[in-house]
Amino acid sequence: MLTTGYRGSIVLGALLVLMSSSSVHGDTLHAYDDGVANITLGPPRSFAEFGDIDMLWGNYFFTDGQDEFITSVSFGLGDLSEGNNVSIWIFDDPDDDADPTNAVPVFSAQTTGMNLGFDFNVFETTPTLVQGGFFVAIGHLAVLTMPGGEPDYPSPARFDPDGRPDRSWFFYDDDIPENDLASSGFVQRMDGPFVPIQGAFAVRAVGVPVPEPTTWIGMCLGLGLIGVRRRSA
Ligand SMILES: [Ca+2]
Ligand SMILES: [Ca+2]
Ligand SMILES: [Ca+2]
């Protein structure tokens, strides 16, 4: 199910937020959306026959020249099923080929999120090492079966039709196999044949460059000298 909305009055504010957040102390903000992600995506009504649907959606990024620690993940949402539970995932891709279906989970956490319109939920991660290509994704169980009541058709994944679609992916299954994404029941890149409107998900990550080995050696030498000076004082 696709729904659209447009609020031009806050475009400028969202862009200013994007600009200010992209220059934080040399950290790298990985993002494909432009700050106005005005489309949400959830399972089509025809999927109700399968029961509740586990969803995973996210973006494939490349580190900015050297390994990075991912320190936060931010994400826009549409409407969630009851409980507002989401999971945060970081996968490192061993072959760095822009295809996350063989990527390996290196971080996951459970939290709750909200539909904040064009604003982002922010989750501080345990600093997580990624090398080259990596995939950052959000998971949510879309509850389509409600005994005794009307089915719920949430539309939790928020994306931007202006963002490059060939780095965004989504997955459906009754239980997403995070350890083997390729075996998910439904896998689609956001420029694939089953995508009615292409775009990039509103999923971002902040990466902090890992110091080069020479820098580490320099730091250790510096610390050693400090220790020597303190002992000799
Ligand atoms: Ca946009
Ligand atoms: Ca990698
Ligand atoms: Ca791969």
Main sheet properties: 6 strands, antiparallel
Number of strands: 15
List the strand order in the largest sheet. 8-7-10-4-12-13
Q: Spell the H/E element sequence.
A: EHEEEEEEEEEEEEEEH
Kindly name the structural category.
Answer: mainly beta
Radius of gyration: 20 Å
The portion of residues assigned to helices is 10-25%
Q: Please, what is the average pLDDT?
A: 85
Bound molecules: calcium ion
Low-pLDDT residue spans: 1-24
What would your notes on this structure say?
Helix content is 13%, strand content 39%. It has 233 residues and is mostly beta strands. It has one domain. The N terminus is likely disordered. Bound molecules: calcium ion (3 copies).
Question: Keywords, please?
Answer:
233 residues, binds calcium ion, 2 helices, 5-stranded antiparallel beta sheet, 39% strand, 6-stranded antiparallel beta sheet, mainly beta
Draw up the topology in text.
Elements (H helix, E strand, L loop, with lengths): L1 E3 L6 H11 L6 E3 L8 E3 L11 E10 L5 E8 L1 E3 L5 E8 L11 E9 L8 E10 L2 E10 L12 E6 L7 E6 L12 E4 L10 E2 L1 E7 L3 H20 L1
Antiparallel strand pairs: 1-3, 2-15, 3-11, 4-10, 4-12, 5-9, 5-15, 6-11, 7-8, 7-10, 11-14, 12-13
What can be said about this structure in brief?
The protein has 233 residues and is mainly β. It is built from two helices and 15 strands.
